[in-house]
């Protein structure tokens, strides 16, 4: 099967990264941009061949068993990522100065901040104490500067627009509602309602926010997606 790496949308890029690569230990990354005027497919082939990325699942399993690293390559337009697991590989020598660990330095892409962090607390049953979730989990959220900008904007217009207009704008915020994004949007909505309540205006129900993420087909036609 042909190795697939070129995503058809920003949402597909983030989804492939957050759902398929980071959960399986591809934590070490190099981020790059292919210069204008350079053929992206030439760069693709060079990197994939150089680091032996286009291999079967069985080869990846054998490498892992003997302590060798596996790599993936992912690109959207001119932005690309090289991702590696722990282990021995020439990648760590060749890219030594550029390698980052997503557990310490988030990947920033398209206004998102994507990291791997220890969980907060597990969902608890009534009457039971909260239990810390020590498992490392992928966290996709709106990057801090974008989030603060959105929050400032909606706080500014909270009393200038009608509830219906604000509801439509909140629904159309262009970030997929991963769990941390949902929490950020609820914080923004809370700030909006605080300002409207102080002015004696009607508040906006949380149901106006988008809670179901559109599932993209990263390597298929750009308009194919489902909602979950």
Note the topology.
Blueprint: H1 10-21, E1 28-33, H2 40-50, H3 57-65, E2 71-76, E3 79-84, H4 91-94, E4 100-101, E5 107-109, E6 112-118, E7 136-142, H5 144-157, H6 163-171, H7 179-198, E8 214-216, E9 225-227
Antiparallel strand pairs: 1-3, 1-4, 2-3, 5-6, 6-7, 8-9
What does this structure look like?
It contains seven helices and nine strands, in the order αβααββαββββαααββ. The radius of gyration is 21 Å and the shape is globular. It has 228 residues and is α+β, with helices and mostly antiparallel strands. A four-stranded antiparallel beta sheet has the order 2-3-1-4, with helices on both faces. Strands 5-6-7 form a three-stranded antiparallel beta sheet. It has two domains: 10-123, no CATH class; 144-216, no CATH class. It is 35% helix and 19% strand.
């Amino acid at each position: 099967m042909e190795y697939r790496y070129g995503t058809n949308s920003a949402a597909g890029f983030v989804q492939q990264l957050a759902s398929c690569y980071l959960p399986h230990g591809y934590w070490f990354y190099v981020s790059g941009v292919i210069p204008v005027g350079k053929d992206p497919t030439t760069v693709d082939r060079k990197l994939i061949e150089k680091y032996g990325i286009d291999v079967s699942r069985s080869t990846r399993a054998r490498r892992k068993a003997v302590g060798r690293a596996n790599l993936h390559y992912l690109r959207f337009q001119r932005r690309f990522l090289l991702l590696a697991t722990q282990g021995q590989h020439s990648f760590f020598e060749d890219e030594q100065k550029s390698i980052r660990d997503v557990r310490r330095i988030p990947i920033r892409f398209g206004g998102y901040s994507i990291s791997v962090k220890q969980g907060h607390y597990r969902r608890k049953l009534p009457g039971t104490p909260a239990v810390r979730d020590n498992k490392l989990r992928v966290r996709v959220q709106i990057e801090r500067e974008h989030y603060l900008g959105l929050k400032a904007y909606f706080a500014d217009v909270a009393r200038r627009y009608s509830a219906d207009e604000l509801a439509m704008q909140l629904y159309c915020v262009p970030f997929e509602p991963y769990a941390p994004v949902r929490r950020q949007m609820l914080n923004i909505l809370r700030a909006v309602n605080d300002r409207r309540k102080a002015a004696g205006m009607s508040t906006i129900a949380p149901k106006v926010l988008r809670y179901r993420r559109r599932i993209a087909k990263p390597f298929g036609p750009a308009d194919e997606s489902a909602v979950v």
